[in-house]
Write a structure and sequence with these properties.
Length: about 200
């Protein structure tokens, strides 16, 4: 009996999650400008932060965000409430970020043979232990574009390496190697920053 109740509760929570802002989205689909503005207001700040982490430049992030929301409202009739609206919007935003990065010829260095033994330790993800999220995000901006994008997609946006490979047009192995290198580079950056703070104090 308890198991059935827990299952019913789970279904209710899931249903609510998928149908978040359903009325608002339906009004947006009908072209209601006030509702479109409200949807933009609800999600623009968090999506801008996604853009900024991906493209690094504030002005470019703003441009990408505007283009992404144009796509959102153009494609909104295709949204069937199979996922949360926020997740659907984020997918469009990330695709726009990737397109912007590809225009500036974002490069990913393939694994050389000598790096073939890099292990996939992504399940450990200890780079941020004992550090604030903000410290890690600041350090992200010091990473090369390839490292930063793969790390952001995997660690912050919840993509797996296969998905990253598909959206970036790289192999899964390259995604894993970029992520592994990004973590090591982040550790080095954060260590140097901590040493600098220690010396100043």
């Amino acid at each position: 009996m308890r198991g059935n109740l827990a299952l019913e509760t789970y279904k209710i929570v899931k249903l609510d999650y998928v149908n978040t802002h359903r009325d608002l989205v339906e009004k947006c689909k009908r072209g209601d400008r006030q509702s479109q503005f409200e949807l933009y207001r609800l999600y623009s700040k968090s999506m801008y932060n996604v853009c900024l982490r991906m493209v690094k430049d504030e002005f470019e992030a703003e441009d990408v965000l505007q283009n992404a929301f144009l796509d959102v409202f153009t494609k909104l009739n295709t949204f069937k409430f199979e996922s949360a609206i926020g997740a659907w919007i984020k997918r469009i935003v990330i695709n726009n970020c990737i397109n912007a990065l590809k225009k500036r010829r974002l490069q990913f260095s393939e694994l050389e043979d000598k790096h073939g033994n890099i292990r996939d330790d992504s399940h450990q993800d200890s780079v941020a232990e004992g550090l604030s999220v903000e410290a890690v995000k600041r350090a992200l901006f010091e990473l090369p574009d390839g490292y930063r994008v793969v790390f952001s997609l995997y660690m912050l946006e919840g993509y797996d390496h296969q998905e990253i490979g598909e959206v970036l047009g790289i192999s899964e192995a390259t995604s894993k190697s970029q992520y592994s290198r990004a973590k090591q580079r982040l550790k080095d950056i954060l260590t140097q920053q901590n040493l600098g703070l220690y010396k100043r104090s």
